[in-house]
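Question: I have long wanted to understand how a fold can be written as tokens. Here is the record:
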Amino acid sequence: MYYKKIIGNKCYLSPINVEDYQKYTTWVNDMEVGVGMLFTASVITEAKEKEFLEGFVQSEYNFAIVDKETDNVIGNVGFPKIDKINHTGEIGIFIGNKDYWGKGYGTEAIKLILDFGFSILNLHNIHLKVYEYNKPAIKCYKKVGFKEVGRLREAKQIAGKRYDEIYMDILASEYESVYIKDLVEKRNK
């Protein structure tokens, strides 16, 4: 079961359903999906993934990404780290269902979580990390307004080659609310 917390045109964000652990296990064990993630070298069983999701849902700021038309879960997005004193947050996104790659779902999910972070959580800076070989992700992040702010040089070794870990961020002043601003304006009439 999914609940429409934040709704976009293509997808919506919902609390994560732990019962999706089998789908997630399939996704995280697919090397094509996992190569850009931290868990690439891990072997993840259904029991491990279910345990992970149970812990993950305890954080109130992690969401399932659900296709609006079919109500199928396609991945997740959220804030694994938030600094409430300094109003900063780190986001992570994972599109496990490869049928949805390159079709704008990741871009929209990031816009939705940015809107939530800036408009509801009142964050000032939202940042992320990405490996330099993950060109589609970098393109997506730049499209929604993230800027490169630094690199940890040669931080990742894969297939005998070293790659930088790129740090990107966006400030509240650089993002214009699309979804939540409209909701507030409708209520204000």
Q: What stands out?
A: The chain has one domain: 6-187. The beta strands are 6-7, 11-15, 62-67, 73-83, 88-95, 125-131, 147-158, 161-171. Helices lie at 21-28, 31-34, 46-56, 105-120, 135-143, 179-187. The chain has a mean pLDDT of 92.
